[in-house]
Amino acid sequence: xxxxxxxxxxxxxxxxxxxxxxxxxxxxxxxxxxxxxxxxxxxxxxxxxxxxxxxxxxxxxxxxxxxxxxxxxxxxxxxxxxxxxxxxxxxxxxxxxxxxxxxxxxxxxxxxxxxxxxxxxxxxxxxxxxxxxxxxxxxxxxxxxxxxxxxxxxxxxxxxxxxxxxxxxxxxxxxxxxxxxxxxxxxxxxxxxxxxxxxxxxxxxxxxxxxxxxxxxxxxxxxxxxxxxxxxxxxxxxxxxxxxxxxxxxxxxxxxxxxxxxxxxxxxxxxxxxxxxxxxxxxxxxxxxxxxxxxxxxxxxxxxxxxxxxxxxxxxxxxxxxxxxxxxxxxxxxxxxxxxxxxxxxxxxxxxxxxxxxxxxxxxxxxxxxxxxxxxxxxxxxxxxxxxxxx
Length: 391
Known about the structure:
Elements: E1 3-9, H1 15-28, E2 33-37, H2 44-48, E3 57-58, E4 65-69, H3 72-79, H4 81-93, H5 98-104, H6 110-124, E5 130-134, H7 138-152, H8 154-176, H9 184-204, E6 210-217, H10 220-235, E7 240-248, H11 258-275, E8 280-285, H12 294-305, E9 320-325, E10 328-334, E11 343-348, E12 351-356, E13 359-364, E14 374-380, E15 383-388
Helix pairs in contact: 1-12, 3-6, 6-9, 7-8, 7-9, 7-10, 8-9
């Protein structure tokens, strides 16, 4: 079974360095490892000190390690001809051509879908023991990780409806308008993509196969964003198994200008320990030089992980659980949110719509709960408990 390790964090906290160090350490321990960058900034090659392409590239001097920088344009050309064909025809009809059409070909959202599709293919190839994913900064990575739910839910239903509608109206529409109509092959490709992302969603929410590690620095604003990211990842069912505090100033620098910063970091390290009490809290000191190249990454990884194997799940907690209790069937969702005002719950048929800190997730209820309504819900100690009425 290929394990997936997702590394994310606020921009500028060193998440690419942590991702690369984790991959180097795993490879040194004998795991066949792939370091995958899905951040459009693509700094993985810079950190490793070598050129990386859109195909797995062996990392010099590190056995068992390969690296890849995902390129949505390459993925689009390689696998999704039905998409590109229709989009190109539509753009020509709209009056765009040449460079403008090429720049518009990957519209917002499609890039994330293509990147996730590549991740799914790499996992299903079973070629690697571990895939370490260097995600985009927190806000972008949260949007990326919400796509599997959207694709298997509302987008898939809309596509099925539109395909049925066009089967009936295609002839009349083509006679009345010159606008190109999507061919059936495009919807077939969409269904293949939705199925891939459905399988990827099942992997991402399985704590035995996927863990998230959030990288932060010991600063109040960064810690607050990390706490929000923790809640939102939990909302989508992903298991965060550790928080990594990077660039901790050593005590011997506690003089002059840096003395105040060491006090700030001490305060925020203590706050992080109280906020993320159930998680592993790892720390990496501020390094004397830039962490570039396999040797420097390996040294940083030893300091960060010690005797731990980065492949291991540091906690193994199912974020969404259906349990039977004296109260009846209960859905438990670990949100790590204590402010009830930040959480909203609605039921629409056999779906629960949960909103937390401005993000929304739709959870399709299992067949055993079909037709049953929510009797009550409460948020306590960061856990949302939804109790269903008996049949």
